[in-house]
Write a structure and sequence with these properties.
The complex is a heterodimer of chains A (299) and B (548). By secondary structure, chain A is of the alpha/beta class. Chain A is built from ten helices and 14 strands. In chain B, strand 5 and strand 6 form a beta hairpin. Chain B starts with a helix and ends with a helix. The chains are: A alpha/beta (299), B mainly alpha (548).
């Protein structure tokens, strides 16, 4: 089971380039797709989900080009878009039954599967109520259930935890970990902690390009020895931000404790810290921006 | 000052949003086509059998009346939807949290509607000038007689329509398809209001401003003029009254005041709309009805027994088989959830997807809808055949108009397109199933007339019935998929239904009740048209699947 993204580009009307020469290989496991807003994550997800055609490049599912034969992927695909709707007059059971029919799942299998999924997403009690009256979090859980309806080999979830409360978020992360054994799960988010919890590999996307890709340990090793904590008066924080990449701050009695990502110790009093994935993510983004600026200056 | 600034800001932003959409190009094309139709004599203003020489006064009033007549009908469907757009995009929620009052907001929307409709008027005014120069029957251009009818007949009518569109968007029950259907009948009523009441001033479209000026001149100058004034789609050329001299409408202060009074009516309509406007408060919206709210409590209000597991952080473990997932709450109360792997996929199950589409189409309809459909069905069985296949079948086939108008648009309207379009073999399965569900609804609601035709041995009648039952959902599906909006079908079908089956206009009566000389040929045309429409829907949907 393999998903290969080869030199993928997508340009929208008005010459807006959402993806540029994106290349990636992924086997079973959870791929966490991280990037700032507008980085091109959702476009990549839509292309992978066969909803959008790329402008150039191709996506291979087990060696087959999904542009030429989208149905080969669609039959084993589960997709939770970032923005999706429901039919307000149907209840959760009817909506999932409808989608099961559309996805070609037999009636008996569908009924059993729907009951299990509703239980899994904690909607059994609300399953017979019209979706029009559901809260945002409940709708999101219906979206998660529909993505799992056909027992997908490739599960693509775009900002799946949006609208979920913290406990539901934890449950969903655990569910993704559980599901990832024999399938590929692609999780797009800008919440680093979601990815940190479940991803077996991480891809960082910025301005439509792949900035970094590897196992979490690999990304962490890239930032090892580069994370420092310094304590400065509040008045000096702005100056510190100008000079260094500050990943977080905390106001304490002795001043502001600033977490800095930089190769050399920012001051003799600086204390080295264990790097986190958020540090690695911010460093990768900062380096990518510097490279782009350099390229721009050369051009 | 603040009020004016708010209104102009809302209007300007809304106008920009519209004119930057491709649909605005379609609007302009409609205007250009209308101008072309007038310029090439396809639409004629006649006094009895006569028309005047094409001078500035005649062309000005003719083009302005055409604008007033057609744009007031079609323009409503073009401009309606600006409040709904704010509702759908969520911009409304942002605006609702500002000090902006309801009247200012709706006045801004009406002003934007007026701006869009005025752009059509401007194109037609330019077309009128071009027409005079191109036809060349009178090369002397007089700007006031040429343009004043646009200013004083067409523009107040557009203001009236712009305000009505806003009113329909705010009054509960008129926002959706019912309002779209109702507008046609209201427009017809408005058109005939001066005749019905014998009060020529009750004329929002401004026809009688022209009639009251033209007919006395015709009576004085045309010896064989026996009365009559028409704006018709020309089937044959009119006689040119070369000796007829008319300098245009005499715009006296009272006539002008009467026309501008409609601007005042428009303001009143906006005021009424402001009373009904829910200011994007979902609790006042009918979108989530009280029935649904009662049925669906938000997660926070779920009974404790159900909500228990939500409030407990869960951990997932795996049983030995790997196919069983267990959800264990932090309170250590295990809740086993079995997620059975799917071993087979029955991808060919077309009957299931058809049933699902049919259920989806009928879901949410209230009891009175079924009662009405059943009543019409029983009446078709009971009434004499001409009544059964005529007005009763026509009524039975307008009844589900809002069900059909969802065909092809439901996926976009409800935001399920991305989920559906990523399913396997969606085009050859879901689209035909959706269409067939529409056909089934036509067959069920018109079954009484069909049975009567069969019993009477009227083969051609039955063939026409079949053609009608296939044509309606085909038209709905094609227009729905292509335009992604229900209102286009609702408008087109209502007009077609009124002109065709209700008035039994030969060729346009898709039910076959009008006594055509060639019933089988007409039915064959509608069957062919149905096939073309379904093919067009499939092509458009295939394109959407590729370029979503």
């Amino acid at each position: 089971m393999q998903l290969a993204v080869e030199n993928l580009s997508k340009t929208y009307r008005g010459n807006v380039r959402a993806l540029r020469g994106f290349t990636l290989m992924q086997g079973p496991g959870v791929l966490g797709l991280l990037g700032p807003n507008g980085a091109g994550k959702s476009t990549l997800m839509r292309v992978l989900a066969t909803v959008t055609q790329p402008t150039a490049g191709r996506v291979l599912w087990n060696g087959a080009d999904i542009s030429r034969d989208p149905d080969s992927l669609r039959s084993v695909l589960g997709y939770l878009p970032q923005d999706f709707g429901v039919y307000p007059n149907l209840n959760a059971f009817e909506f999932l039954e409808y989608l099961a029919a559309v996805k070609g799942i037999g009636a008996a299998s569908a009924r059993r599967r729907i009951a299990e999924l509703l239980e899994l997403v904690n909607l059994t009690g609300a399953a017979r109520r019209p979706l029009g009256g559901y809260s945002g979090g409940m709708r999101q859980r219906v979206g998660i259930a529909q993505a799992l309806l056909n027992d997908p080999q490739l599960l693509i979830v775009d900002e799946p935890t949006a609208g979920l409360d913290p406990e539901e978020r934890v449950r969903f992360r655990n569910l993704l970990s559980e599901l990832s054994g024999e399938r590929i799960v692609i999780l797009s988010t800008h919440i680093v902690s979601d990815v940190e919890a479940v991803a077996t590999s991480i891809a960082i996307v910025s301005s439509g390009q792949l900035v970094a890709h590897g196992a979490p340990e690999e990304l962490l090793s890239a930032v090892a020895g580069k994370v420092w904590e310094v304590v400065v008066p509040s008045a000096e924080l702005a100056a510190l931000r100008q000079r260094y990449l500050v990943s977080s701050t905390a106001h304490r009695g002795d001043g502001v404790h600033a977490r800095i990502v930089t190769a050399a110790a920012p001051s003799p009093a600086a204390r080295q810290l264990e790097p986190s994935l958020e540090d690695a993510y911010l460093l990768a983004l900062a380096e990518s921006r510097q490279t782009s600026e350099l390229r721009g200056a050369v051009a | 000052m603040n009020l004016a600034r708010s209104i102009s800001a809302i209007a300007y932003a809304d106008f920009l949003e519209r004119v930057r959409r491709y649909s605005f190009l379609v609007t302009l094309l409609f205007a250009v086509y209308l101008g072309y139709a007038v310029a090439t004599g396809k639409v004629l203003l006649k006094l009895g059998d006569y028309r005047s020489v094409y001078n500035s006064a005649w062309i000005g009033v003719m083009c302005a009346l055409v604008t007033s007549l057609f744009v007031s009908l079609v323009g409503f469907y073009i401009v309606k939807g600006s409040v709904e757009r704010d509702r759908q995009t969520g911009v409304g929620q942002i605006l609702a949290a500002t000090p902006l009052n309801r009247f200012s907001y709706l006045a801004g929307k009406a002003a934007s509607n007026f701006g869009v409709l005025s752009s059509i008027v401007v194109i037609l005014a330019a077309a009128a000038l071009a027409m005079q120069l191109l036809v060349g029957e009178d090369p002397h251009v007089h700007l006031w007689p040429l343009l004043s009818p646009f200013l004083l007949i067409a523009l107040p009518a557009m203001a009236f329509v712009a305000a009505f569109a806003v009113l329909f968007e705010t009054v509960p029950g008129l926002r959706g398809g019912f309002g779209n259907v109702l507008w046609f009948f209201l427009w017809t009523f408005g058109l005939s209001l001066p005749e019905i009441t014998k009060q020529h001033w009750l004329d929002p479209l401004g026809f009688f401003s022209a009639v009251d000026s033209l007919t006395p001149a015709a009576q004085a100058q045309l010896p064989d003029y026996k009365g009559g004034f028409s704006l018709t789609i020309a089937d044959r050329a009119a006689k040119i009254a070369t000796g007829f001299h008319w300098e245009g409408i005499d715009w006296t202060p009272s006539v002008i005041a009467l026309r501008f009074a409609w601007l005042g009516v428009a303001v009143i309509l906006i005021g009424i709309a402001a009373v009904f406007f829910d200011r994007f408060d979902p609790s006042r919206s009918r979108a989530v009805s009280a029935r649904k709210l009662r049925g669906a409590q938000p997660a926070d209000n779920l009974p404790q027994a159900e909500a228990g597991s939500i409030t407990v952080p869960g951990e997932l473990g795996t049983s030995a088989g790997g196919s069983t997932t267990s959800l264990v709450g932090a309170n250590a109360t295990p809740a086993l959830i079995h997620l059975t792997p799917l071993t087979s996929r029955d991808s060919s199950g077309f009957p299931r997807i058809f049933t699902a589409e049919l259920k989806l189409a009928l879901k949410g309809l209230r009891w009175w809808w079924y009662a009405g459909a059943l009543g019409l069905l029983i009446a078709q069985f009971a009434a004499p055949l001409p009544i059964s296949r005529g007005p009763l079948l026509a009524a039975a086939w307008i009844w589900p108009v809002l069900v059909w108008s969802a065909l092809g648009t439901r996926e976009r309207r409800n935001g399920t397109a991305q989920i559906l379009f990523s399913c396997a073999r969606i085009l050859p399965r879901q689209l035909p199933a959706s269409w067939l569900a529409g056909v089934a609804i036509a067959a069920l609601t018109g079954a009484g007339a069909a049975l009567r035709l069969l019993i009477a041995g009227d083969k051609n009648g039955f063939l026409a019935w079949c053609a009608g039952a296939l044509f309606i959902p085909s038209l709905a599906l094609a227009l729905g998929v292509i335009t992604s909006t229900a209102k286009f079908f609702e408008g087109v079908f209502t007009v077609l239904w009124y002109v065709g089956p209700m008035n039994q206009t030969r060729g346009l009566d898709f039910t076959g009740a009008a006594r055509s000389l060639y019933p089988a040929r007409d039915a064959a045309i509608y069957l062919l048209l149905s096939a073309v429409l379904v093919a067009a829907a499939a092509v458009a949907r295939a394109r959407q699947l590729r370029h979503n």
